[in-house]
Each structure stands twice: as structure tokens, then as C-alpha cells.
Sequence to fold (229 residues):
Amino acid sequence: EAQVTQNPRYLITVTGKKLTVTCSQNMNHEYMSWYRQDPGLGLRQIYYSMNVEVTDKGDVPEGYKVSRKEKRNFPLILESPSPNQTSLYFCASSRTGSGNTIYFGEGSWLTVV
Amino acid sequence: AQSVAQPEDQVNVAEGNPLTVKCTYSVSGNPYLFWYVQYPNRGLQFLLKYITGDNLVKGSYGFEAEFNKSQTSFHLKKPSALVSDSALYFCAVRATSGAGSYQLTFGKGTKLSVIP
Fold:
């Protein structure tokens, strides 16, 4: 089954404790991206990657890091989480070409206390 | 910069009545337009997209959307609403070329409630 898989789905952590949200897709997609969803703000892009070793900032990259060492994986790293990073996070992927449909994971609820 | 406006935070419609969820966009050049739906505690599911060609696009679950270039709109419609259509709906735009083509820009979402 074609899918984008994120882990963990739910996490409560403390301020300053580094964490990684993993993302994996099995569709051999070149393009991958991370979004955060906040009430009243919709989804905002954090980072995206056009292919292995190619990443770039989206609209809200502050406080986040990403890496793309393998085509299927695109982890999101919070080096020192803060409460304003409490959000619902989505990983997404698609084939190259802006007309291609972007497929989303089920989301990761992150709470930073 | 590209943007999407969904002017209604919430739309209420009676079951069996037609529904419309509004969306307008701004983008440099030609757009690719998408609708996604989010059910409670779930991810985003793709409904339909406009790439080129016929302005009326048909998608999943009986939904359709009409691309109107002059009004820069892409409203989502369904002839007869079901209670199970109650969800959060997002419109999104992506440029066909340039920097905006790397990003899918979303509206803030419209909550659809279908009343039995």
C-alpha cells in the first residue's frame, strides 16, 4: 500500500529536549516536505526536499532541521524544542513536477511543555 | 508570494442540500489548484485538482470544483451533502514554475458541518 508513515504519532516532551520525527514514504517520490498545522493558520511549510541531499527552507523553518540522506526518509529534527512548537506536524511526498498530487502522512501531534 | 483565501471559517448545510466551499487564490503565472479534506484526528486526503483543460474538475466522493481564471476562484461543490462529508476542507495552490512551484500553499481551512 502506497503511504507516508510518520513516527511518533503522539509525543509530549519537555522544553529543550532534542527530538526527531521520522518520515518514510514507499512511493519512490523525489519531493518530500514538512508542514505544521495550527488552528486558524492552516498548514505552513517548514522545509522541503527536491531529492537526496537537496533541502530548502519553507515559510517557517526557525527551530527546525531536516536531512535527506536517503530517498525514502526525511526526518524532522527539533534541536531544542520550545512550547511554541507545540503543533500538528505533517510529512508529505510527491513525484517531481508541481502538478503532481502531494500525499500526506497521518500527522504527528507534538506537545512541548 | 502565492496565497489562498477561504473566506468562510465554517459552512453549515442540511443533509441532501447542495454545498459550496469557497476558495480564491493569488499566484504568479498559471496555477495548479488542489482540494484536500481532513477528518478528525486524521491526515489530509486528496480530493481533486485542476492542472489544465476542462474548468470543471470531478474528484472523490462526488465532489467537484470549478476553476474560474477571471475570478481567480476554485470553489468546491457537491450536489447533495451527506452527514459523512462533515470535515475540515483545505484549498491549496502551487505555481506551475518558479520558486512557488516548490511549495503547496494552503488556505486556513473551512469546517463543513452537514446537519441531519
Observations:
- The interface with chain B takes residues 33, 35, 40-45, 48, 50, 56, 58-59, 90, 92, 98-99, 101-107 of chain A (CB under 8 Å).
- The CA atoms of residues 16 and 111 of chain A lie 12 Å apart.
